[in-house]
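re: ur question from earlier - yeah i can do the single chain one, its not a big deal. heres the input i used so u can compare w yours
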Amino acid sequence: MSITLDNQLVHELGGRVSGPVLSPNDPGYDEARRVHNGLVDRRPALIARARTADDVVAALAFARRAGLEVSVRGGGHNVAGRAVSDGGVMISLADMTDVAVDPERATVSAQGGATWAALNEATGAAAVTR
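and the output i got, formated as tokens:
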């Protein structure tokens, strides 16, 4: 499915998102849309690589205004491939990978792009220092 977006809207989103906003002809687009399941080959109209929660809000507002479906890619391991929509706006959380461990309270906070490997590494390190 191919969608043509108003260049002014795309430019406006690029000014509101701190990470890159990628369209199909941009370098890095194919890598950003790739998920763990190699059988999934969907092509979003736009990929917003969010770095903050405000970036996510801006991308959602853009998609709403443009009337486009939204998909969210976290760590990229969704087996069914729902993280990538054909012709929609994919919000990539791949750059939001912070993991914070509070050993005193026995809690962990992780951003949406954190992988299990990062979570295991952070909690394992905290367990060793405890």
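The chain has a mean pLDDT of 88. not sure if urs matches, ping me
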